[in-house]
Amino acid sequence: MELKGKVAYITGGSKGIGLGVAQCLLDKGMKVAISGRNQAALNEAERFLGNSERLLTVVSDVTQFEDEEQAVKVIFDRWGQLDVVLANAGLGHFAPIDEMSLEQWNQMVNTNLTGAFYTLKASLELLKKTSGYYLTLASLAGTNFFAQGAGYNATKFGLVGFTQAVMLDLRKYGIKVTTIMPGSVATHFNGNTPSEKDAWKIQPEDMGKLVVDLLTMHPRTLPSKIEVRPSRPDLKGR
Question: What are the domain boundaries of the chain?
Fold first, then answer.
């Protein structure tokens, strides 16, 4: 894919991985729309990325299908096409299953799994027209289970399975589909505040470079599921 002038939509793009990917795609000349639930956070992201004609911020809650439909409409009305969609929005609650609340479970399922479905469903017809690319941001928690992770594991295992089945459904339209499964990333996830202590982790810009590599790979080749992890976890705490 020649990236210059192409249009991308990133959910959960106001910080962390989504923001890092947005920066890299803008640097490659793409037009990028980012969404989030909080207008103030989107405004801060816009200040970080730079107020550009190639940047659009949209308030949308991925757990509401109508929000995603409207977000895609705004993007199409602005730029007339959609080439890349990254379903990045996600959250995690971690507790033993006997302590996990119904609200926590439902928040994770609705955001991490149903949200990715809503984003794709809202954008699919436009992706068919451009033979575009749909990516989901899963996790190594989508293949490695751990104590106190029942809800998060369930959504990420589900997201991996969803994305791989979608890949088989959509390749006949020339749409490429990939799920990315990172380990520890230096983001605000789970209440973390990124700092020097996170230097050993994957950085958001590393994830952005990975997405660029995927988008520019020869179309005959599809890395459909990618695990990515810190290369030196032994540096944690140093």
Answer: 7-235
Q: What topology does CATH give the domain 7-235?
A: Rossmann fold (3.40.50)
* Cα–Cα distance for residue pair 207/130, rounded to 1 Å: 24
**Straight-line distance from the first to the last Cα atom of the chain, in angstroms, rounded to the nearest whole number:** 40
* 166-178 residue pLDDT tens: 999 999 999 999 9
Cα distance between residue 164 and residue 198, in whole Å: 31
Residue 98 makes CB contacts below 8 A (sequence gap 6+) with none
Of all helices (H) and strands (E), which one includes residue 212? helix 204-216
What are the Cα distances from residue 32, in Å, to 40, 192, 209? 18, 26, 15
27: Cβ contacts below 8 Å, ≥ 6 apart: none
**Which is nearest to 112 in space by CA: 63, 71, 77, 64?**
63
pTM: 0.95
In tens, the pLDDT along 132-181 reads: 999 999 999 999 999 999 999 999 999 999 999 999 999 999 999 999 99
Largest Cα separation within the chain, whole Å, is 50
The angle formed by the CA atoms of residues 211, 213 and 215, to the nearest 5 degrees, is 70
Cα–Cα distances in angstroms (integers) from residue 139 to residues 42, 153, 158, in the given order = 24, 9, 11
